[in-house]
Amino acid sequence: MVPGDGTGPEVIREAVKVLQAAEARYGFSLARTDYDLGGARYLKTGEILPPSVLPEFRKFDSILLGAIGHPEVKPGLLEKGVLLEMRFALDLYINLRPVKLHPGVECPLKDKRPEDIDYIVVRENTGDVYTGAGGVMMKGTPHETAMQIQSYTRHQVDRCLRYAFELTRRRGKRKTLALCGKTNVLTYVYDLWERAFHEMGERDYRDVKREYYHVDAICMWMIKNPESFDVIVTGNMFGDIITDLAAITQGGLGIAAGGNINPEGVSMFEPMGGSAPKYAGKNVINPLAAIAAGAMMLDTLGEREAARGVEDAIAWVTSNKVRNLAAGQMGYSTTEVGDLVARRVAG
Ligand code: IPM
Ligand code: MN
Fold first, then answer.
1. What is the largest distance, in Å, between two alpha-carbon atoms of the chain?
2. Quick check: 323 pLDDT over 90?
3. Is 182 tagged catalytic?
4. Options 209, 240, 282, 339, the catalytic residue
5. Which of the two residues, 345 and 323, has the higher pLDDT score?
6. Nearest protein Cα to ligand 1, atom 6
7. Cα–Cα distance measured from residue 177 to residue 25, given in angstroms and rounded to the nearest whole number
8. Residues facing 147 on adjacent strands
9. 80 carries an active-site annotation
């Protein structure tokens, strides 16, 4: 586990509490090892991600991460050095972000109910403008030129599409996979995505319906008709942006969780919200996203029944107890929300 910075340790504590309740109830046990990566360690020792850590991470079945980002450290340093480095080095090429409105949760979209907001975004997690390719010339002069290159390989695109098609088929909801791109402007990168999408769909997934949306248009449809989505697949940058938009339609970052998945290796699960330094140490942050990340982790570890038990307990808590998911407005403290879920899981 990497509790990390800010409110990370507080939400991870609650996630562990719920995992322990699930272990007792469903009869399995998880061994845990803590890693103190993050801003505090960096400020104390200058270390961001010591080289010994990655080989150790590869030996675990799963990683649970709280949050990375510290107000006294230059933005980007820890995010790139820990979070993005883990995604790249462990080849966590899928960022799986379910979008689900839980019962009882206040939704900012008028007249939308839980059955209307229930889809999954498959965000590619290793390519795009995130690779760091680019540079700056004539820095500090009026002619300064900055470039940040968007790149995708066919291999990266294909393996992401394969995962998305398989997920759509397995999910069996509307059997519809939507590609989100920008083929009218990004005529190289999203042309590659679009061709690969249709080739693979035509060849191997004739039972899955294919749709295409430009990224700007999909933002509109995610607000207007979220019920029309089943699985959305997209590149890293668009995936980053649309999943924050999606998160607010499900009640905010307090409940949005994601999995950074390497289907052939170790995966990492995290709440989508950041380290929220202004709430750190106050016992007011919402732990449900971290608890939901724990449920995703259980599912990936093969503890399907326990995963469902935790998800049901979250739904029970949002229906019966915590209506407002915003930090400080839950009507319960961080620890109390963890207790509510853990008690429900315990049965
Ligand atoms: C996310 C975050 C990260 C990203 C940041 C912290 C680097 O926004 O996980 O969505 O851009 O991927
Ligand atoms: Mn983001």
1. 66
2. no
3. yes
4. 240
5. 345
6. 79
7. 36
8. 135
9. no
Residue 216 annotated among the catalytic residues of the structure = yes
The arithmetic mean of pLDDT across residues 204-225, rounded, is 98
What is the pLDDT averaged over residues 146-170? Answer: 98
Nearest to 237 by CA among 295, 287, 185, 290: 185
309-to-34, 199, 294, 304 alpha-carbon distances in Å: 25, 39, 11, 9
The structure tokens 């060849």 sit at 203
Q: String of b and e for 77-98 (b: at least 16 CB within 10 Å)? A: ebbbbbbbbbbbebbbbbbbbb
With beta carbons less than 8 A apart as the criterion, state whether 257 and 95 touch: no
| Pocket probe mutation, ligand 1, options 83, 121, 243, 275, max atoms within 8 Å of Cβ | 83
Please give the model's pTM, rounded to 2 decimal places: 0.96
Full DSSP string of 32-93: ------SHHHHHHH--SS-TTHHHHHHTSSEEEEEE---TTS-TTHHIIIIIIHHHHHTT--
Give the residue, by CA position, lying nearest to ligand 1 atom 10: 240
How is residue 96 written in tokens? 């799986």
| Torsion of Cα atoms, 309 then 311 then 312 then 313, to 10° | 90
Kindly state the tokens that stand for 76: 């980007």
